[in-house]
Amino acid sequence: MKKAIIFLSLALGLFVLFQFARYLFFNAPLRSILAAIKYEEYRQAQGIDARLIQSKKVLVDYKSGTAFVKVLYKDDPDHVYEYHYALYIANLKHPYQKHSFHKMRLVVSTSPKATAELNEKALNSQPKYKPLDIYNNYV
């Protein structure tokens, strides 16, 4: 009887530990934290000062496993900077070669405010901060 109680408590403890690890790995907390860390590295590599951030939001797409960091900068209000983060990218062209881990790329779009106002200057302007080539080889 005593062995059965010990076995059941050990099995239950391992099950709970496994479920917690699975939650951390496959759900938002880990991906959003890693995306925020990678965004800071990317921002520093771009040479953007942290004081220029007007708003920053981290979103996670559960279907694709990708996290997005949407950023508006004070000195470039006409563009929305969307940083795409992937924890793991399989190399489908060459499956026996190295895979990519902890990667981020930048997609810049026109802000909804400029689009709603149909501001021609804003719609045709170039973004102030360009994507980095070394980081933008996402896939």
From TrEMBL:
Q: What's the short name of a Pfam family annotated to this entry?
A: DUF3139
**Which InterPro entries has this protein been placed in?**
DUF3139
- Name the UniProt record assigns to this protein: DUF3139 domain-containing protein
Q: State the taxonomy lineage.
A: Bacteria, Bacillati, Bacillota, Clostridia, Eubacteriales
Name the species this protein comes from: Amygdalobacter nucleatus
